[in-house]
Amino acid sequence: MISEKLKIAVLGGTGNIGEGMVLRLALQNLMAEGVKNEVIIGSRSKEAANEAAKKAISELENCGFDTSRITITGNSNYEAAQAAEVIILTIRFDYILPLLHEIREALEDKILITPVVPMVKEGDLFVYKPPEEGSAALAIQKNVPASTKVVAAFHNIPARKLRDIVKCKAVYHALVCSDDAEAKKLVIKLTDHMGCMKPLDGGPLKQANTMESLTPLLINLAKLNGFKDLGINFS
Length: 235
Prior knowledge:
Blueprint: E1 6-11, H1 16-27, E2 37-43, H2 46-62, E3 72-76, H3 77-83, E4 86-89, H4 96-103, E5 111-114, E6 119-122, E7 125-128, H5 136-142, E8 149-152, H6 159-163, E9 172-178, H7 181-192, E10 197-203, H8 208-225
Parallel strand pairs: 1-2, 1-4, 2-3, 4-5, 5-8, 9-10
Antiparallel strand pairs: 6-7, 8-9
Keywords: Oxidoreductase
Domain Pyrroline-5-carboxylate reductase catalytic N-terminal: 7-117
């Protein structure tokens, strides 16, 4: 059951991508349209999560936003996932499977969003290294309860632009893949009001490998050609 005010856990919310997600989700509460929510930052350390929550509120206040209608709290990964209806994984692929095992019981009947990209650095460039399932998204789906609705999204959004809640004027297309139509619809709606992003239906979850593989390509293109914060915009 999805409540009127959506509870969203950002696991790994103390990292760059997670921090940007937290800020943009929280700001939806100040918009006339969009999904109203409560954001819960998850971390291995509850204390670190609480500090990240305080930092996010302070950053929003320093940018001139009214935080009276914004709720950001911190908790352990398990407790954050347990309390949430939607969970976003913003940690490295290397740590995903142990985390999923740790919080498995908390994932029943939840929407689980993965922007995770399995990649490694070879020399000066990054290479996409999917697991045997074919993508991080499919590996995640294999390791969660059958009732968990896995959605792949946000892979190709530059972390620095995601955090730039004041100056970012660029609009990046965010591809959304899932086998669950209702979960995909909710994530598209969520994305539509996050600012700097325009969602596109990317098809079923098996398409996630194409989305994931674009991330190292964009990083490499930026490095080789002197670009910054390279993303995708289809026209």
